[in-house]
Amino acid sequence: MSEFLNFLSSANTQWVLLGSIILGFASGLIGSFVLLKKQSLIGDAMAHATLPGVCAVYIIFNVKSIPLFLVGAACTGLLATYLIQAIVKHSRIKTDASIGVVLSVFFGFGIVLLTYITKNTKGNRSGLDEFIFGQAAAMVKSDIQVIALGSLIIIIVSALFFKELKISIFDPQYAKGIGLPVSLFNLILMGLVVGIVVVGIQMVGVVLIAALLITPPLAARYWTDRLGRMAFLSGCIGGISGVVGTLISTAGDGLPTGPLIVLCASVIFLVSLLFGARKGLIIKAVRTT
Amino acid sequence: MNALTIQNLSVTYDKQYALEDVNFSIPEGSLTGIIGPNGAGKSTLIKAILRLIPTISGEVTVYGKPYKKQRSLVGYVPQRSEVDWDFPTNALDVVLMGRYGHIGWIKRPNKKEVQYALDCLKKVGMEEFADRQISQLSGGQQQRVFLARALAQDAQVYFMDEPFVGVDAATERAIIKLMQEWKEQGKTVLVVHHDLQTVKDYFDHCLLLNKKPIECGPTSDVFTMDNLQRTYGGSISFLGNNQVMMQGG
């Protein structure tokens, strides 16, 4: 027990926990908008598509530099998102198939690059692995500052434009009719998703960061019928998952952080699915009998 | 004074004309029914006027000035099927959206705006449903929420896309009452409508449309068997008995 308290009082742990709360809150918040816009899978594709970007940057510059990784991740993530929409616009392929194609091509390419790195860079791949699959214990104060600052900006932007994002998602035609630049707000939302994916991959990993966008709002939706409350609750669920996952991971001797965070969010989702006050299965069963 | 003038408006879908060279104008304070067969481009016309879809040509003037400058004067009631009614929001919140143009960016609605929205709900007989999640409203009630939102917008020219589809009698009365009020206040209303039986009762002006305007003018002049035949072409036969009734009325 005292060991655990010692561990909690370490400055680095506190930084990591702070980072995981803010990141979890920001992704839960953005996730609410993404879920209602029915674009959760685009977030997933975007996250997977950051892998080749990170690897390519590592191959080209041959350094482990977090800012460079983030730039690489943002580039391929955005490219993938653009391609998904371009395919839908210029062909008869529907969004789901388009997402499937783009996700697998980018992720496949990323894995190829990753294998190349392992074979050709004299085994010095450690650090990259952690970046890709998420490892909170390996993070230092400067990493956390990037995460915290990025998340904070994302939270502020979505709070400022809450009303505009809401109407652009609920009724885009009407929003255009009253003169709101709906495509600008779609772009802002896309930018926020890229932002959260890019700052979050280091903690949660490219494979699972999307789950942190999708699961908290899904859980929150079972408790409320108001967007504001849902977004806030979803943020809290994301924050709690972040903290608990990170705690277990750092205390539990190198267990991967990303999967643990996502497992926490999933447990909260399951509880909400069953006991949710608005749409939970139990309350529905009670009402119909 | 013309509230609305449309010149050379054309829209294409997949290289086929959905609307071809549409020209017409609507006098201030009129209630206009936009009538035409399925696929005639009635909803497309409204969306093209409001710049919700791309057009290949066309100018829209509202009270003598380009639409872009007069946007705040124009209100829109979309078809109910165009939004996700499972969205986590309540009736009052949807009506408040009608005030967003007045409130401006970033700012939150204040008490005055909320009261305004509540008054609008009251006018369509929905005040007791203000807190109701929108998915738990009936089709007619949802339509009245949309009406209240349009009311909250306080526009001069209103476009309504099939407001009477799938609504109960109470809602139908609410819509008609509201249209009359708007007319009395000198506002101009254009409604996509497809129940030919009620055209003469509801509208003082008609736009008969089939890809291009067939006729546009006072209902008593243009709503004739002959013009309907030209608008509906071969499909006029579905009118059946109404046809006789319309000629008699």
UniProtKB/TrEMBL annotation, chain A:
Looking at the UniProt entry, the stretches that span the membrane are 15-36, 66-85, 97-117, 144-162, 203-223, 230-251, 257-277
Establish whether keyword Ribosomal protein is in the entry. no
**Cellular-component GO terms for this entry:** ATP-binding cassette (ABC) transporter complex
Bilayer topology reads:
Multi-pass membrane protein
- Record-linked Pfam families: ABC-3
Protein's cellular compartments: Cell membrane
Q: Give the main localization category.
A: membrane
- Keyword Transmembrane helix: yes or no? yes
> What keywords sit in the KW lines?
Cell membrane, Membrane, Transmembrane, Transmembrane helix, Transport
> Among the record's GO biological process terms, what is one?
cellular response to iron ion
Its function, per the record, reads: This protein is probably a component of a manganese permease, a binding protein-dependent, ATP-driven transport system.
Q: Which family does it belong to?
A: Belongs to the ABC-3 integral membrane protein family.
Please state what the protein is called. Manganese transport system membrane protein MntC
Give the organism, scientific name: Pontibacillus marinus BH030004 = DSM 16465
TrEMBL record, chain B:
User: What keywords were assigned to this record?
Assistant: ATP-binding, Nucleotide-binding, Transport
The ABC transporter domain is annotated at: 4-236
Q: Where do transmembrane segments lie in this chain?
A: none
List, in alphabetical order, the Gene Ontology terms for molecular function in this entry: ATP binding; ATP hydrolysis activity
Looking up InterPro entries in the UniProt record yields: AAA+_ATPase, ABC_transporter-like_ATP-bd, ABC_transporter-like_CS, Metal_Ion_Import_ABC, P-loop_NTPase
In terms of Pfam families, this protein maps to: ABC_tran
Q: Which domain of life is it from?
A: Bacteria
Report the sequence similarity comment from the record: Belongs to the ABC transporter superfamily.
Q: What is this protein called?
A: Manganese ABC transporter ATP-binding protein
The scientific name of the source species is: Pontibacillus marinus BH030004 = DSM 16465
